[in-house]
Structures are given as structure tokens and as C-alpha cells.
Amino acid sequence: MVFLSFKSKDTSKNFTNHLSTALNQAGFPTFEGGDHEESRRGEEINLELPNKAIQESKMCIIVFSQTYASSSWCLDQLVAILEHKMKFACMILPIFHHVDPSNLRKHKEILEKH
């Protein structure tokens, strides 16, 4: 199984849907862990299902978009993915969707100062 982590508002109607469809058609079942935070306001977030899917995945694809890090749902998934990688060496593929990877380095420098 391939786990997809993404910010729904940024990518679900275009890039992520096409990626998921292509992976499924190629014989790689996917679990979409998009945040859908707009539909969850006021509800207690249950990470059990995505965490189970992450643990069962051989590969995790993280679609970093402009607002990915603004979602606590996405960040919780990212932590679970990295913990899974440390324990079971699953493959992680980062995709930068309309984001320059060098922008992440700049944020790291800012965070290190604090």
C-alpha cells in the first residue's frame, strides 16, 4: 500500500487525485490521508485510521504544498510517517507541489534561531 499525505485544499482536486488514480491503475493501492480540516472543525480528530494505514504502507508519499505545514493533521501524519520509517525502513517520496524545496531550508534556519 502507498500512503498519500497532502493538504486537501491545495492539491486534492487536481494533482493528488491524478496521482492516486495512476498508482491504483498501476497496481499500487493507495490510502489518501488528506487533511480535509474544513469538514472536521469542532470535531475531535481521530488519527487511528491514518496511523494504521501508515503502519501497513511500504511507501509514503508526502505532497508538500504551500500550506501543508499549517495543518496539524498533516503534521501529525508526517510525524507518524517518520516514526514508521525509523522502525521499518519504509520508502518515503517527498513531492514539492508549487513549492521550492529551498524555501523549507529558510524556515529551518528561522526555527533554529528560536
UniProtKB/TrEMBL annotation:
CC terms in the record's Gene Ontology section: nucleus
SUPFAM superfamilies according to UniProt: Toll/Interleukin receptor TIR domain
GO BP annotation list: signal transduction
Family annotation (InterPro entries): TIR_dom, Toll_tir_struct_dom_sf
Domain TIR: 1-114
Keywords, ordered alphabetically: NAD
Domain of life: Eukaryota
Heme in keyword set: no
PANTHER family, alphabetized: RESISTANCE GENE ANALOG NBS6, TMV RESISTANCE PROTEIN N-LIKE
The protein's name in its UniProt record: TIR domain-containing protein
Organism: Capsicum annuum (Capsicum pepper)
